[in-house]
Design brief:
With 240 residues, the protein is of the alpha+beta class. The chain has helices at 3-23, 66-86, 133-144, 161-186, 209-212, and strands at residues 37-48, 52-63, 94-106, 113-127, 148-156, 190-202, 205-206, 227-239. Among the domains are: 37-47 and 161-202 and 232-239; 52-156, Alpha-Beta Plaits (2-Layer Sandwich).
Length: 240
C-alpha cells in the first residue's frame, strides 16, 4: 500500500472515532463521600412560673346600620379599655388584632334580605401583674356589658432565656450520652461535635374556654400553673 493510501486510511479511522465519541455522552462526577460521624438527638426541659398573661377580648355589636353598630361597639370597647388601663395595663401593652364589619342577611323564604350589620373589635392585652388577671377580666367584662367578648387567655414568660439555657444543657447532655453509647457499641472513639441544630422553646399555656366563661360570675378564678420550656438538639459527632 502506498503512502497516500495509508494517509487516507488513517484519516478515515480518526473520523469514525470522532463520530463515535460525538454520539456517546459520558459524564464523570468526582466521588463524594460523607464524613464519618454519629448523628443523635437530645431533649431538655425546664419549668418556670409564667409572669405574663396575654388576654384577647373585645366587643361585638349588631344594628340596622353600620354607623349604629360601630358606635355601640366603640362605646363598649372604650369602657373595656378604660377598665384595663385603670387596672394597671399600660397602653403599650394593648394592641388591636381584629376589626371587622360584616353585613347580616336573612336567607328565609328562598331569598337574601339585608337585615343589619355586625361590628367586632378585638384587642390583645398583656397583663404583667399576673395575679390581677382574674380581677381585670371581671372589670373589663362588666364595663363592656352585653357586647363584651373574651376570646382567649394564655400565660407565658416574658424572658424565658434562663430556662432555655437550662434546657439546652440538658439536651446536649442527653445527646452526648447517646453518642457515647453508640460509639462504644460500635468499637469507635467519639470525637467532637461537627454540627448542632436546635428547635423548641417556651410554649404558652392556654386557659380553657369553659373557664373563661366564668367571667360572668362574681369572680373569675385563674390558676396560672407552670410553663415548660423544651429544647431539642440534633448533633453530629465526629469519630476518631
Amino acid at each position: 500500500m502506498n503512502r497516500s493510501l495509508l494517509v487516507i486510511a488513517a484519516a478515515a479511522t480518526g473520523a469514525l472515532a470522532f463520530l463515535s465519541l460525538g454520539c456517546t455522552e459520558t459524564t464523570v462526577l468526582p466521588s463524594e463521600r460523607e464524613a464519618p460521624g454519629i448523628t443523635v438527638s437530645g431533649s431538655g426541659e425546664a419549668s418556670g412560673e409564667p409572669d405574663v398573661a396575654v388576654l384577647s377580648l373585645g366587643v361585638e355589636a349588631r344594628a340596622d346600620s353600620v354607623g349604629a353598630a360601630r358606635e355601640q361597639a366603640a362605646n363598649s370597647m372604650d369602657a373595656m379599655l378604660d377598665a384595663l388601663k385603670q387596672g394597671g395595663v399600660e397602653e403599650k401593652d394593648i394592641q388591636t388584632t381584629r376589626f371587622n364589619v360584616q353585613p347580616v342577611y336573612d336567607f328565609s323564604n328562598n331569598k337574601q334580605e339585608l337585615i343589619g350589620f355586625t361590628v367586632s373589635n378585638i384587642v390583645t392585652a398583656k397583663i404583667r401583674q399576673i395575679d390581677d388577671t382574674g380581677d381585670l377580666i371581671d372589670a373589663a367584662v362588666v364595663a363592656g356589658g352585653d357586647l363584651a367578648r373574651v376570646e382567649n387567655l394564655t400565660f407565658t414568660i416574658d424572658d424565658p432565656s434562663t430556662l432555655e439555657q437550662e434546657a439546652r444543657v440538658e439536651a446536649m447532655e442527653e445527646a452526648r450520652s447517646k453518642a457515647e453509647t453508640l460509639a462504644q457499641a460500635g468499637g469507635i472513639e467519639l470525637g467532637a461535635p461537627i454540627s448542632i441544630s436546635e428547635t423548641g422553646g417556651a410554649v404558652p399555656l392556654p386557659f380553657g374556654a369553659a373557664d373563661l366563661a366564668r367571667a360572668e360570675e362574681a369572680s373569675t378564678p385563674i390558676q396560672v400553673g407552670e410553663l415548660d420550656v423544651t429544647v431539642t438538639v440534633q448533633v453530629v459527632y465526629g469519630v476518631e
